Amino acid sequence: MASHTCSKCRKIIHPGDLFYRCTIKVFAEFDGVINIKNNKIDVEKEFEKARSYPEDLIEEEVFKEFDFTLCPRCKEIYCANPLHLPLG
Ligand SMILES: [Zn+2]
């Protein structure tokens, strides 16, 4: 069985050692409300603009997934403050 490496601190995790898988999914949410700030939107022009963006860039705008391997210490640090909020 191959060993793993902690994605955060690069520590080698040997076969049989405890480690964690951290999967983060970030996706666009829709609350059912469409805000139209400017009534003069040219829909055809907007669609044309969107078509010129690379497909993977548009997908990334809607859904992004991260997958990390964490050693026990890095898992504790991550879980204590996953959004890096200011402590105080
Ligand atoms: Zn680590």
Characterize this entry briefly.
This protein has 88 residues and is an alpha+beta fold. Helix content is 30%, strand content 23%.
Name the descriptors.
alpha+beta; single chain; 23% strand; binds zinc ion; 88 residues
Explain this structure to me?
The protein has helices at residues 43-51, 55-62, 72-80, and strands at residues 4-5, 12-13, 20-27, 63-70. With 88 residues, it is of the alpha+beta class. A two-stranded antiparallel sheet has the order 1-2. The protein has a two-stranded antiparallel ribbon with strand order 3-4. β1 (4-5) and β2 form a beta hairpin. The longest helix has 9 residues, at 43-51. The mean pLDDT is 89. Zinc ion (ZN) is lined by residues 6, 8-9, 11, 70-71, 73-74.
In percent, how much strand structure appears in the residues? 15-25%
Q: What's the total count of β strands?
A: 4
Find the structural class using helix and strand composition: alpha+beta
Strand line-up in the sheet with most strands? 1-2
**What is the 3D shape?**
elongated
**Ligand species:** zinc ion
Oligomerization status of the protein chains: single chain
Head-to-tail CA distance between termini: 43 Å
How many domain modules?
1
| Helix/strand order, N-terminal first | EEEHHEH
Mean pLDDT level: 89
Low-confidence stretches: none
Biggest pleated-sheet summary: 2 strands, antiparallel
Radius of gyration: 21 Å
Give the helix tally: 3
Residues in helices, as a percent range: 25-40%
